[in-house]
Structures are given as C-alpha cells and as structure tokens.
Amino acid sequence: MEESMTILNAIRQEFECKEVDIRAYSPLTLAYIGDAIYDLIIRTIVVERANRPANKLHKTVVRYVNAGTQAQMIMALEEELTEEEKAVYHRGRNAKSYTSAKNASIADYRKATGLEALFGYLYLQGEMDRLLMLVRLAFEKMNIKI
After folding, report:
1. Catalytic residue among 21, 35, 39, 108
2. pLDDT tens figures, 30-65
C-alpha cells in the first residue's frame, strides 16, 4: 500500500524545499503559517458541510477564525498539551508583534498568536493528526459545532 502524500510533503517535493530545523523558526513565523493552516482547516470543514454562496461561507468561517475564538480554544486545550507544545504556545504568545487584531483585546490577540504558532509548529512537523485532534477537541470542549 502506497503511503498517502500530505500537502506539506507534496509542496516540499514539488518545490524542492530544503529541510529546516523547525525549532529555529521565530514564533511569529510559526504563527504566520499556523494562521493559514487553521484557516484552511475551518474553510474545508465549512465547505464540506454545505455548498453555499461565498459570502455565507465567509460569514461562517469568520466566526471561528478570529482572535477571540482562538483565545478560547487555547484556554480549553492548555491541560491537553504536551510540555513541548506548551513551550511553543508560550513562545508565540510572548512574541513581540507589530500588528494587533481589529476586534480583539491584546490578551486575546497574544493567546491567538500563541495558538497559531502551535498550529504552525505541528503542521511543519508533519503532525496533522495531532493538529486536527486539537482543533476537534477544543471545539468539543467549547461546545461548538461547525
């Protein structure tokens, strides 16, 4: 049986990306890619649930892809994280960012940045199963159904 190709492996192979020690990435770089992969996860769930006009898809997605919801997610997940995952989250949360959220407190924005850093780390480590499980678990603990 052939091993399935992940999007990460496909990108690395197609564009001949060289191996990089993920621990060397800045927490804001991890948050940058983590924001994108979290957005892709939520958009995929929303699209798979129903074929709707793009504006309705967008309105649904923004309920979950925002600093407030992400801050709640990390608070629901903290006790579930490994020590390594907690360290990545804390690095992201404490990173000095030069931007801020439009509709969130600074505290929520920092927590969301930490969560995005964790998601970016897990994605770049090839740990999509763990990443998806954490998203699912956070929504379960928050009693959210997308």
Report:
1. 35
2. 999 999 999 999 999 999 998 999 999 999 999 999
Between the alpha carbon of residue 57 and those of residues 42, 46, 79, the distances in Å are: 10, 7, 32
Distance CA 74, CA 109 (A): 12
Q: Is 99 exposed, middle or buried (0-12, 13-18, 19+ CB in 10 A)?
A: exposed
The pTM (predicted TM-score) of the whole model is 0.93
Torsion of CA 134, 128, 98, 66, to 10 degrees: -50
Residue in 79, 46, 10 with CA at minimum distance from that of residue 38: 46
Catalytic residue status for 35: yes
Q: Note whether 20 and 84 are within 8 A (CB).
A: no
Which residue is associated with the tokens 């690095």? 91
Place of tokens 């940058």: 32
The answer to whether residues 114 and 70 touch, using CB atoms and an 8 Å cutoff, is no
Residue 146 to residues 61, 65, 131, Cα–Cα distance (Å): 9, 12, 17
Nearest to 117 by CA among 141, 142, 95: 95
